[in-house]
Design brief:
Elements lengths: L1 H17 L8 H5 L15 H13 L1 H8 L2 H4 L4 H5 L38 H4 L4 H8 L6 H8 L1 H4 L5 H6 L1 H5 L5 E2 L2 E2 L32 H5 L1 H5 L9 H7 L1 H9 L23 H5 L40 H12 L5 H35 L12 H22 L3 H28 L29
Antiparallel strand pairs: 1-2
Helix pairs in contact: 3-4, 15-16, 19-20, 19-21, 20-21
């Protein structure tokens, strides 16, 4: 009987539905049935920001499309947020005001007039990225101009021209920005060098690694971002990396890496198989936090003439303890390698440092000092005598390659481009130096050394700031 009743109810319900009726639900029950929810986020932006976007969309479509595809655009961060300036700012663009006098542009009226600057500095970025800006400010990157003005003979001795510096050295190390006749001085701009000194007092340029106007985290994680400056005979980190097993893995599997993981979450074994420059020197792993201070995690200053601990590097002493920083790097390494492997690698690196210091650099420096003391080399300039060039390249070229090759596990650079070349240069250097001493003969001075016209006055902006 109950079965027949249930069948009758089902038939009745079906008949109602077929007749176009709805479910038999009373008003009270209807209130408890979930309704479709539409989530809508409405964002607004000032009219000046709309003017920026619409104008640049027409005038610079490549710039606009870069920004439109960025996380900044997704978060409603516009040109206005980064480029807005105050009337009294030293880097405010006077020429941009002419954009508000255009009759051919809807937004070219006084209604949208606002002071802007072409220069976006770490100080500007710090409004949203305070920790990153703070870490970057204490790094060797941000302070590289201060460093090279202390140690580089090309600058200190004026052995290259100001123009050669602008197109070479300062392209990566950074310029000291200045205005001339209301415009950014072309001798200092354009420039996105990591140690650029800005007119608001900040140092560096975030777009060195996160190129504008995409400002991509993905881009900065790839080794090519570092390779635009870290290459060549004196600091070939990109070549060394690509030769190493790490570089091999990146070449083979890099297309499958999750380059777009959220900042602070990019993890070895989860998002990538083999490390890049960023994953070792900046990204977090294990208990090691992400940092924009590339000076961290270093236990040797292997780019210096004599290898020393980072805190003993007089041009820019690190505010770190090398043992603590080595332990950080070891923890990064042990995300993929066993402790024995990692410890043994550092034993090898320490031996390489010792051999370079004791066998090559110290004897060569001692011989150079002897030549100066005996008056056989002239201290007035540098590079105008062949032995000065030989000594410089011994540490600045081959010596760096030997140490960096060992540190990053690239055998060809550690040996053939490194210690092998050290041996040749050291032997020739000593032979010529000893011959000058034996015959009490002064070295030949190049009277026609070209373009040694650079300014030797150290800019006040590069003086130490009491770090």
């Amino acid at each position: 009987m109950k079965k027949l009743l249930m069948i009758a109810i089902l038939i009745l319900g079906a008949a109602v539905l077929l007749a176009g009726g709805g479910p038999l639900v009373d008003a009270q029950t209807a209130q408890n049935i979930p309704k479709e929810k539409v989530y809508r986020i409405e964002r607004s932006m000032p009219k000046e920001a709309i003017a920026c976007i619409q104008c640049h969309k027409n005038e610079h479509p490549g710039l606009f499309s870069d920004w439109a595809d960025s996380r900044h655009a997704n978060a409603n961060i516009t040109c206005f947020d980064c480029h807005k300036a105050e009337e009294f700012d030293p880097d405010v663009s006077k020429s941009h005001y002419k954009q508000y006098e255009r009759s051919d542009q809807k937004y070219g009226t006084q209604e949208y007039k606002v002071p802007v600057t072409a220069i976006v500095t770490p100080k500007d970025c710090s409004r949203c990225h305070p920790d990153e800006a703070k870490q970057y400010a204490r790094s060797k990157h941000a302070n590289t101009l201060e460093i090279i003005w202390q140690i580089d003979p090309w600058l200190k001795k004026g052995m290259n021209s100001d123009f050669e510096r602008a197109t070479g050295c300062f392209y990566c190390h950074g310029t000291i920005l200045k205005m001339t006749d209301g415009q950014l001085d072309p001798e200092t701009w354009p420039n996105v060098g990591v140690g650029r000194i800005n007119m608001d007092g900040s140092r560096g340029s975030c777009s060195s690694c996160h190129t504008r106007h995409r400002f991509s985290v993905m881009e900065a994680r790839k080794p090519e971002a570092c390779g635009q400056c870290h290459l060549g005979p004196d600091h070939p980190q990109i070549e060394i990396y690509m030769e190493s097993k790490h570089g091999d893995i990146y070449t083979a599997f890099g297309d499958s890496y999750n380059w777009n993981a959220a900042p602070g979450t990019w993890s070895p074994g989860v998002d990538f198989r083999g490390p890049t420059c960023a994953s070792c020197h900046m990204s977090g792993a294990g208990s090691v936090l992400t940092s924009h201070d590339v000076t961290e995690r270093l236990s040797w200053e292997i780019q210096a003439p004599l290898t020393i601990r980072p805190e003993d590097f007089k041009p820019f002493p690190a505010k770190t303890n090398w043992k603590i920083e080595r332990d950080k790097m070891k923890e990064i390494c042990t995300q993929c390698h066993g402790k024995t492997w990692v410890d043994a690698h550092y034993v090898t690196l320490d031996k390489v440092v010792h051999e370079y210091n004791e066998v090559y650099f110290k004897p060569a420096k001692k011989k150079l000092n002897e030549l100066y003391d005996k008056g056989l080399l002239d201290k007035t300039k540098f590079f105008d005598e062949r032995l000065e060039v030989e000594f410089y390249e011994l540490w600045h070229h081959e010596g760096r390659r030997a140490r960096m090759g060992a540190a990053m596990m690239a055998p060809d650079y550690a040996w053939w481009h490194g210690f092998y070349e050290c041996k040749k240069r050291f032997s020739n250097y000593m032979e010529e130096a000893n011959d000058l001493i034996k015959h009490n003969k002064k070295a030949y001075v190049a009277k026609d050394f070209p373009n040694a016209t650079g300014n030797t006055t150290r800019p006040p902006q590069t003086m130490p700031r009491g770090k």
